[in-house]
User: Fold these one by one.
Assistant:
Number 1:
Amino acid sequence: MDSAAFRRRALLGVAEMYAADKAAMAAGIAGETLMEAAGRGVADAVRALGAPRPVAVLCGPGNNGGDGFVAARHLKQAGWPVRLALLGDPAALKGDARLNAERWDGGVEALSPAVLEGAAVVIDALFGAGLARDIDGVAWDTIAAIGERLCIAVDVPSGVHGDSGAVMGIAPMARTTVTFFRRKPGHVLLPGRVHCGEVRVIDIGIPDAVLDGIGPMQAANAQALWSAGFPWPRLDQHKYSRGHAVISGGAQMTGAARLAARAAQRAGAGMVSVAVPADNAVVYKVALEGAIVRGVRDTSGYAEVIGDPRVSACLVGPGNGVSPATREQALAALRTGKPVVLDADALTVFEDTHDLLFSSIIGPCLMTPHEGEFRRLFPVAGDKIARARQAAQLSGAVVLLKGADTVIAAPDGRAVVNENAPAELATAGAGDVLAGIATALAAQGMDMFDAACAAAWLHGAAAEAFGTGLIAEDLPDQLPSVLRALRATAK
């Protein structure tokens, strides 16, 4: 993974952002300068809305409120009618927030819903990303009164926690959120992401060098992270050297493995085989013209198929059934030490024996659970990034925790949040396609963490390319155009 791209796309937790501010000030950049740039950036976002109109600025008792005072000053100087309200006593303000409150030459009202009367635009500068308790009292009442007014949030919408994206009691629905230096996990994790609207990152003068001392371990997914290692076909390759993926198929839900196989073909695997119950082989042969269908009678027959030295990755789980046979196939695949993707039933089947599963992982492994499957395997708590990270460290596998805010975590602590998945991906079979894409990339020699990140991004891009009316069967056929566009930008 490209480390420079990772830093550019880094998501800074609340403590990490505090550390970045502190490091910038230690390097000689005054906190007053940072706050002035932040507030001016918020005012610029408001001015971009068009002609001046009445603005209500809601300020809290901390530095977020200080940013609000700066924004109010700039807007008033630009001819915007500004009404400002403060939560708490002005005399209690400290540091740079107090300084900028003193520079404000307009009125300061006590916070209440009444300050919103007649306002066309609301600047939410009440609470920052590190809010530690649920909002209540007059702050709750005022936020609730924002309603559908056009809201510009400072750093995060008040009530959204910067690390988890959780809503602490209530949060406004912002049209735009203006944040500084780098985004936070709460900007991309649900439900916070829904409340943020468009997120604009403002350069307030913090140098990138401060990241040297922070070492962020989470980032937002983008092709820049993994495109340098993407396995594009070469003229000197043949079908086996381009990767031979073996996908395990079930007897009843045959569509799942067929979707995964078609996705693996479209994602570039030179050869795709499906290992299926011998009595059901004809179903797969009819549907998968370009794949090799291998009928197997038992685990030893499956082990023989994947033991072929030309096989370079295995997928177990989609439609396989929660059965001893699925467990044995998963363990047999893991024993090869080849890259293995475990999805769906190959995860659920280990609900009561997860220690056996984890101890059997000796090579590159990717698990792709949805929330229900994840909870059956991993007794961990915390926000979505923290849970995925703990699961990867417990299991020794890369863990892709699915959802509109899919999180991919590696055992070494790195985590990536995917944010290009449209709502249309909430359809049966979409996860099978994702597993097939990841398996194909791993079969072609891509690092498993990179393969998981690339698969999630390609999956989302394919869904975006198709749009409304999407079903899982549409996804594989969108991959060629997505890959062409990816290759064009990678040159």
Number 2:
Amino acid sequence: MPLPLAYIQERLKELDSWAIEGATDLVKEYLFDSFIESIDFVNQVAQIAEKHQHHPTILINYTSVRLTLTTHSEHALSEKDFDLAKAIDSIDKPHV
């Protein structure tokens, strides 16, 4: 069952610069000074995603990393997406 729009908007306020894209995606783009910093960040995201058993779509383009969260089994956003985004927000990163 999809989350109500009002609830999604409230949960979004808890996050740091995440946005809703389309009807089913929670997205954020990160910028870094080097490719190595981008990869280090992605490795940290991977560890968190494994703990949550919920995995983002990750696009790495040199010094930028774009994360997209959605719950494919629901074809919608779920609590899992917001919980993972909040955990990812806790990663210490140089730029956003």
Number 3:
Amino acid sequence: MMTKTAIISFDSDNKAVMKIIDGLKSMGVIKFEEYPYNPAMVEKIKRGDKAIKEGKGIAISPRHLWK
């Protein structure tokens, strides 16, 4: 048997989605693991977003990075 890994983002507060995932887990169809982001990286991103909102940073569109 060949296994594949898929990364899926979803709203864990959505009861219908969680019911489907729980059903698939109980049938042994999927293995569900949570991989949280590195808290230090999340904090850096939040600080950057806050700096931009306060006018202390420069927002660069990804379209313009390689021009």
Number 4:
Amino acid sequence: MSPYSISHLLPWRFVAAFTAIAVLGGCASFSTDSGFGPVEQTARERLSKDVRWARTAGDREALAQRVQDLLAKPLTADDAVQVALLNNRGLQADFAELGIGNAELVQAGRLPNPGFSFARMTRGDEVELERGLHINLARLISMPLIQQVEGRRFAQTQGRVAMAVLSLAAQTRKTYFQALAAEETVRYMRQVKQAAEASAELARRMQQVGNFNKLQRAREQAFYADAALNLARAEQAQRATRERLTRLLGVWGEQTAFTLPERMPDLPNLPIAAEDRPDIERVAMAQRLDVQGAKLMAEQTAKNLGLTKTTRFINVLELGYAYNSSNEAPTQRGWEISVELPLFDWGGARVARAEAVYMQAVDRAAQTAINARSEVREAYGAYRSAYDIALHQRDELVPLRKLIQEENVLRYNGMLIGVFELLADARLQIASVNSYIESLRDFWIAQADLELALIGQPSLAASAGPAMPAGDAGGPGH
């Protein structure tokens, strides 16, 4: 029996149909930036910072050079944020989610591969050959709908990655001020220890000559011991906060020797007033990515629910062309369609699940909006309180302690007070300055929290709800 080729087996109309399908399948292609453009635009508009996705060795070298230039000088808060956005490898891993999502979106637009079957059966002297070419018709029917589902899912991925960028920037800014304040605290704690050490040594000598009793010396010695302990704690806090900043910056090796300024930025002359943002809640509703993500999830789930209802009966549907030949019987040609009969599973369970997921998404979107309003009010209240506290420390307590110290120096020079009273006031002045440093740190952290509250909380964005699986959109095999 002579061999058969595919062109001999298939009628020209069937071949033409498959050719047209193959041409249409080539329309699904990858985007040039894998959807990175909106993420880059978000960072530029909301942070005034650059983000880069290092996908090649050349990209990594360029980023490494820019990071090295930023680390060559004492880091400002803005420079620290920029280094983190360029150099944090965890953020680069988040960018890879865009590539994965884009690949899934392209895959949703690709036509299913056709299948070819060949069978040879014998019965006595009779030899029967069967050849078939088939394609999943259900997949073809639902392709536009599945593409819409994957498109919305990819938009959610872009929102999550953008939120990761903003979250990293806010966390880096907060940790930067914590590390900077910790270094200043260490410097002041060392001054306190030096003053306490001098006081304890003087008390020891005065006891030796009989001018101090044991109780007086023990008090000075106890203060020195407390000062040494506080310095040790401050140094540990300084190391811990610096390491946290190091992790966020993504630096290692010699890069970990980066330097910070000697002091924190001054308090602004005026805080952000409530009248400057008359409707801060409305601003949050318009800008917060977690609110937008929750709304998108609810919309996507609603559309997926309609898709589930439409395709719950079309589970397995295949169209094929068959060519049977036998050396004993006439050649058979034709086509066949196979469909799963909904005798036992009418798709009601899938529809009920989709409805429950939709109501879950709606409730989570509503709760996200409620949380956003409350969080932005709380963040602004903390910001104003932190500003008022730092302002009070700077304009009231620190000048008063300085004035008291100056007056006591005059009295000490006039032999009206002793050295221990002078040292005690010096310690109080140092403590007031250190308290102002802490309040200034709290203000800058509160400002970073307020900025983050206006654009969204990553924990809420992550809990916006489960995405509808592609299978529930009526894909083949369900």
